[in-house]
Amino acid sequence: MRLVTHAHPSGDRAAAVVASSDGDRLVDLDGLSLVEILQDETALAAARLRVEHAAGSPETLPRLSDTRLLPPVRPGKILCLGYNYRGHVAEGADPTADDPAFPDVFVKTPNVVNAPGDPVVLPVASTNVDYEGEIAVVIGRRAHRVPLVSALDYVAGYALFNDVSDRDWQGRSSQWELGKCFDGFGPLGPELITADEIPDPQDLLLEVERDGVVTVSQSTATMIFPMAFIVHYLSQVMTLEPGDIISTGTPQKLPQALNDHRPLGPGDAVTIRVAGLGELTTTFTAPTDTERTPA
Amino acid sequence: MRLVTHAHPSGDRAAAVVASSDGDRLVDLDGLSLVEILQDETALAAARLRVEHAAGSPETLPRLSDTRLLPPVRPGKILCLGYNYRGHVAEGADPTADDPAFPDVFVKTPNVVNAPGDPVVLPVASTNVDYEGEIAVVIGRRAHRVPLVSALDYVAGYALFNDVSDRDWQGRSSQWELGKCFDGFGPLGPELITADEIPDPQDLLLEVERDGVVTVSQSTATMIFPMAFIVHYLSQVMTLEPGDIISTGTPQKLPQALNDHRPLGPGDAVTIRVAGLGELTTTFTAPTDTERTPA
């Protein structure tokens, strides 16, 4: 299923998305939140039935394009991986030669989460903003010390995530968090795609486009720590809760994009695209005059 | 005021603590949560009136010792400082010589928060657990780009915090988070002391005792980045919300304690003590048999 959360006069609503001949439509899901549905087998089964039923005559349903999408979930924990895609190596070289022994994990705070259609307002204090196109794993069931073989059973689905980062703040001290935790530095969505739609999460092509130029293009097959391992590993340390997300790292930019890179400025746009997971486009805008007043 | 959150048959309750001739007593605060009270001037004033009134004849009130204390707040964000107390320097040397240019900030996830009287269960995966006795600033009002001069106006009060850390996991990668984010690795409390009770937060003696031996004893006067600066600085990056906490770092262990240090094991106890903020004692226990099953 394709699942979203959207703004509604009566409060945030979860919905499923079904295609119709003239654009996507919304199937309402009983006023439960997406996190409530994901962790409840009965609610999930009811949602599937409703989607099947609606798929027969979707034309009477509300249009997806008429609503404002919100982040599909509001994660209590946002765990992120540093270096987790192998770089390009010369022919014949061992691609695993530079693999670290353990994942490098950091945390983004909940204030970063940004609605998928909303711009990221460049903070007044920011000086060197960059993007990182990533696939986020969304936890569906509480996971505490889960075995590797069943780790993906705890994953409700996947969403796209832009790990927006201020490189100057990130480099001010040994820990990266302040460069990672500016308000809005985590566009998430637009949809949560349930895990059953993704036969092999380690066989997805992740592409990022900046201002119309492809800057990242690499398969999840080149991940150092696959998603199942990450869930297993993190669950040894912390209990993962429904709605928590783990963003699984970004591949390196392509050589030309690395060479041409300049910090994001007002008017720039970044699109993350993965077949089956849709695409997430984020525009970057200047701070308002109110924001510019001295602090 | 001395404020607590405690377990009650009808749900978590906020209360103020008043001294009586035979021990501390609880003054109930209308069923609001502590975070609701802290950000509402009227509720805060009403609480103060109630405490004044109760102080006249506290003997009829419920005893603090009869209830189970919970963490005073459930922070959405737990921001922590690395190295933030100056070390001991030779006579005549400049104590600021090793000051970093910027605070080193990392994040603990909400699963770490532990009730002040509860033991920390040593995780099965942990191998080298240490304590860090700290003073946590509790945010009372939403803080976004607040000036340095008024930064403490956004602080509701102070609590004690043990930044429990697994040194092996902390050292596995460049980012410390996994060593910091085990379930329960953040005992908080026992009380939130409102800011008006603390005339100068940069003049507090922080002491830590491990198994009866004082291992840390240093004044907040030796902080590199004072609390007002930290609130100001962080608010340039992220909007701080009522109930968020900023743990302001730990002083280095005394030379003998550094020398004698061994990882915490079952039965060990750590007490953090600051005059005016009370004391927080945490015992460490072995994992249960259920926890020991392979994962």
General description of the model:
The structure is a homodimer of 295-residue chains. By secondary structure, chain A is an alpha+beta fold. Helices cover 16% and strands 31% of the residues of chain A. In chain A, strands 1, 2, 3, 4, 5, 6, 7, 10, 11, 13 and 16 form an eleven-stranded mixed β-sheet that branches. The first copy, chain A, has a five-stranded mixed β-sheet with strand order 8-18-17-14-15. In chain A, β1 (2-6) and β2 (13-20) form a beta hairpin. The longest helix of chain A has 14 residues, at 41-54. The model of chain A has no long low-confidence stretch (mean pLDDT 95). At the A-B interface, β6 and α5 of A face β6 and α5 of B.
What descriptive keywords fit this protein?
homodimer, 295 residues, alpha+beta, Fumarylacetoacetate hydrolase, domain 2, 2 domains, five-stranded mixed β-sheet, 18 strands, 16% helix, globular
Spatial gap, N to C terminus of chain A: 45 Å
Assembly category: homodimer
| Structural class designation of chain A | alpha+beta
In CATH terms, what is the architecture of the largest domain in chain A? Alpha-Beta Complex
Q: Which CATH top level class of the largest domain in chain A fits?
A: Alpha Beta
What is the H-and-E element order of chain A? EEEHHEEEEEEEEEHHEEEHEHEEH
Average pLDDT number of chain A: 95
Shape of chain A: globular
What fraction strand of chain A? 25-35%
Q: Would you report the number of β strands of chain A?
A: 18
Number of helical regions of chain A: 7
Query: What is CATH's topology name of the largest domain in chain A?
Result: Fumarylacetoacetate hydrolase, domain 2
The greatest inter-chain interface is formed by:
A-B, 46 and 46 residues
Please give the share of residues in helix of chain A.
10-25%
Q: What Rg of chain A is obtained from the alpha carbons, in whole angstroms?
A: 19 Å
